[in-house]
User: What shape does this take?
Amino acid sequence: MKQKKIPFFASLQVKYASSYLVIFAVVLVLLNTYPIIASQDLLFGSKRDSLKSQAAVMSSALMELETLTPEQVERVMTLLNITGLERVLVTDPAGLVLYDSARPEREEGYQYALLQEVVLALRGYDVFHSAYQSRCFISTAASPIIYRGMTIGAIYLYEADRTQGELLLALQQNLRTISLVIAVVTLLLSTFFSRMLTARITALLRAIRIVGEGEYGHRLQPVGRDEMAHLADEFNQLTDRLQATEEVRRRFVSDASHELKTPLASIQLLADSILQNQEIDQATVRDFVFDIGEEAGRLTRITEHLLALTRLDSLPKGSTVPVDVSKVARRVAGQLEPVASGAGVAFRFSLKPDCIIQCTPDDLHQICFNLLENAIKYNVPGGSVLVEVYPDQDQIILEVADTGVGIPEEDMPKVFNRFYRVDKARSRAAGGTGLGLSIVRDTVRRHGGWITVRANHPAGSVFTAGFPRYEPPEEGEP
Ligand code: ADP
Assistant: This one.
């Protein structure tokens, strides 16, 4: 059997491992983005609040001045003593810088704050802007200074927070390291788990292949109690059945060839004797040819019986009709009457009327014929055969009892086996094939019946077959 190669990416192992990886990749992406975004938002929020409140404090302090001059503003700012800000800028309504913490030494000439935030604040807006750039939180805020409804100036605050920036960066780096560790562990674990799973599938595949190649004794070791263990168990049971069937088949073939070989060998021997013996007389030749004919007849019977068995195994039942068992038994006994009287055996009957079963007439004929023929074959001169047919509840019973040689107790279960004979010599002498009863058993079962054998008293055996009784359809039923 050619072993199909599974492409690497189509393999269950890769699919299983990658599904793990995809799930963890999603988790890791979330882990790396959500906390960062959330803490950034939190920081922006707190910056906005603190800058705005600082701006509010300054503007309310400055508003007291009514008119703003650089000296007064500087004085107020010194009094307020604001720390932690990179730059504080105060302008007049025209944007002229009155105070700039970044340039404490005031330069000559007029300085205008041309910052967008200042322009907006002078128009009466509160402005806040925050960004995270080059490991630093940059926040700017601007507010108008209003005195009696008039904008008398603007405050601009600028803060660059490196500490928080570094913290955020450290968080980011920590998360990245954790993610890397998780990714590596996931990769290793998923490879390990998927290997474990696929190793068991591979073992199952290998076992199927081995059994497929004809080694029916091979079994899987069930590991654990999961679905794979169930699968292994089912596989073992299937192989048990396969092995049993194969055993039956082998035995049948070997028995059949053995049975065919014996008459063939006899024919060969007889033919050789005639050819090699120059001085053989006419009468001996006739005897030998008669024996050859006998052996050929046996071969024909064996092949016919083998064919009958194969038909029973492979063909459907054929069309069944209601048949009266009593009538068929009587007819078969009539056919076998000459054989019976030749053997000094007498028939007796107890046949009840209306014993109808649903059956193929030929099959029922075959069953009766084989049973009655055996009852004569394995009988003694002066013996008798009692044929009984009677209803028993929803069954019809056919019973053939003889007063013959009987069957030893230990052989009784085996007489229905193919090629089984209690007394080989007697069977052979009587022209038996060892297949008659197995044909009977298979045919009876095919029609839903059963068959058993027991000892007859004081001598002989009783074969009993039961069939489901035929129920005529009710009026009006199709
Ligand atoms: P065979 O062709 O040898 O008769 P069967 O399958 O019909 O094969 O029977 C199997 C064996 O069972 C026979 O060889 C015989 O030994 C035994 N047997 C069958 N029927 C009887 C019987 N009525 N009385 C005693 N032995 C029987």
